[in-house]
Design goal:
Length: 465
């Protein structure tokens, strides 16, 4: 099941090279995903803040509701591109749905949803989704209706079309191969992101922890096989609602079962499953849409007065609906990274001075001073005149170096200015350049003009005399 963003990238490739390029780009994407799995890059999703993921889940649930709500009324407007042409707003669209649609279908869809929800409440481990699917299949065979999946997707089935044997031939040169290798990267990125987040959504729906390594392997193999048989790049987004099964505490088989369910539903037995009425599918989608967003988490945020986080979640959901799931995720992650960098950029340091009798510690926030009760071991012996000791604490890196520079600018001029790195616990690879920036900035702002400065540090090997 390709995502919307991937479809757009595929379309550009087809316009440039023709449809015969798609099996090859699909194989390349599958190989890239497999390599990413070996490098464990998919575990980077663990560092995405919770509110970004929750905003994605709320947004993707809203997208599914807007995209498939026509099924509830026995219509296919959103799947025939008529909705864009006919309606200027969602309000007008739903007014038209009520006027033209079958309200019996709508009530039946809510009935299927209530059945699934009751099953989830009273015996969650049982795969109720399969019961409703088999029921819909039986009803579709015994009481056929035109308002079924076939009217939305037409005839769907598996066609064996081995690459370069039965399909069109593709004869690229070196430049074309290079271009394909480059353009496969964004497709791989979008599939990785969507697959991981959809796995998290499936995890929220089933209540068990997914094996993300298994997810990546299945998606990579699925893309390689899809390319061999002349298919398109795909992700496992349908795993959110195809299965709702609990196998032990870790659902290690969820990805494999999901892949087989897609093979059965969309492939081998698609001619039969296409007869399932819309109200069955709509009820299952309602079940997914309502249960994927973590409402208890939103309620907890509201009760604990963390309304700013709630605002972030709704902003990401709004971006997801209006601009796309992947775009909203990237924007939310970038916002979280900026907030993290802002917090990390707060400098941590101690300042000691002897501008009065004795040694005093200065508070950089309000410029207040108090007597320093512990012996300052950063002062060289036999020092003459006034001095200021600026002692770095914690991490010194390229993120917080600007904060340190701003603090050093505010210090008063003294005869001796000492930079101490005794309590620096993290010193990144750009720290040497950062030290040079500090010293150059002090020189350029005349903080130590015609004065004596001593750099005291266990990292003296990195410093040039």
């Amino acid at each position: 099941m390709p995502s919307w963003v991937v479809i757009g990238l595929d379309y550009q490739l087809v316009k440039t090279y023709g449809v015969e390029v798609m099996p090859w780009i699909t194989i390349i994407v599958g190989i890239y995903i497999y390599i990413a799995g070996l490098l464990k890059w998919h575990h980077l999703s663990d560092f995405i803040p919770v509110y970004v993921i929750e905003g994605f889940l709320l947004g993707i649930a809203s997208l599914f509701f807007f995209s498939y709500s026509d099924y509830m009324f026995g219509l296919t407007d959103n799947h025939s591109n008529r909705g864009v042409e006919l309606y200027e707003s969602y309000y007008d669209m739903y007014v038209s749905f009520f006027q033209r649609g079958d309200l019996n279908f709508a009530m039946a869809a809510w009935g299927v949803f209530i059945f699934l929800q009751l099953g989830r409440i009273f015996y969650r481990q049982f795969p109720w989704i399969f019961i409703t699917t088999l029921t819909g299949l039986t009803l579709g065979i015994l009481f056929p209706t035109e308002k079924c999946l076939r009217s939305a997707y037409g005839e769907v089935g598996i066609q064996i079309n081995l690459i370069e044997f039965d399909g069109p031939k593709f004869n690229p040169n070196f430049q074309v191969v290079e271009d394909l290798l480059i353009k496969a990267f964004p497709i791989t990125l979008f599939i990785l992101i969507q697959n991981q987040f959809c796995a998290k959504a499936g995890q929220a729906l089933s209540g068990v922890r997914c094996d993300y390594d298994q997810e990546i392997k299945c998606v990579s193999i699925a893309n390689i096989l899809s390319g061999i048989f002349g298919g398109l790049p795909c992700c496992a987004s349908s795993r959110m609602y195809v299965l709702d099964m609990k196998l032990r505490q870790t659902n290690k088989w969820s990805s494999i079962l999901n892949a087989f369910s897609i093979l059965f539903f969309y492939g081998l037995f698609s001619k039969v499953f296409m007869d399932i009425p819309f109200y069955i599918i709509s009820g299952q989608l309602l079940y997914m849409i309502i249960n994927i967003p973590p409402w208890h988490y939103y309620l907890h945020l509201y009760k604990t007065q963390r309304k700013l986080i709630l605002f972030y979640i709704f902003c990401i959901a709004w971006l997801c609906v209006n601009y796309g799931a992947i775009q909203s995720t990237l924007i939310g992650s970038m916002h979280a990274l900026i907030l993290f960098a802002q917090k990390m950029s707060t400098p941590s340091a101690e300042v000691m001075t002897n501008q009065k009798e004795g040694v005093y510690q200065m508070n950089m926030r309000d410029s207040s001073i108090r007597e320093y009760e512990v012996e300052c071991n950063d002062i060289p012996p036999n020092i003459e005149g006034t001095f200021t000791v600026y002692r770095f604490n914690g991490a010194l890196n390229y993120i917080n170096i600007k904060g340190h520079i701003d603090q050093i600018k505010e210090l008063s001029k003294t005869d001796n200015f000492i930079l101490s790195f005794r309590y620096v616990c993290v010193f990144d690879f750009q720290a040497v350049d950062s030290l040079a920036i500090i010293v150059d900035n002090m020189m350029s702002n005349y903080i130590i003009y015609n004065q004596k400065m001593e750099l005291k540090s266990q990292f003296q090997d990195y410093m040039k005399e």
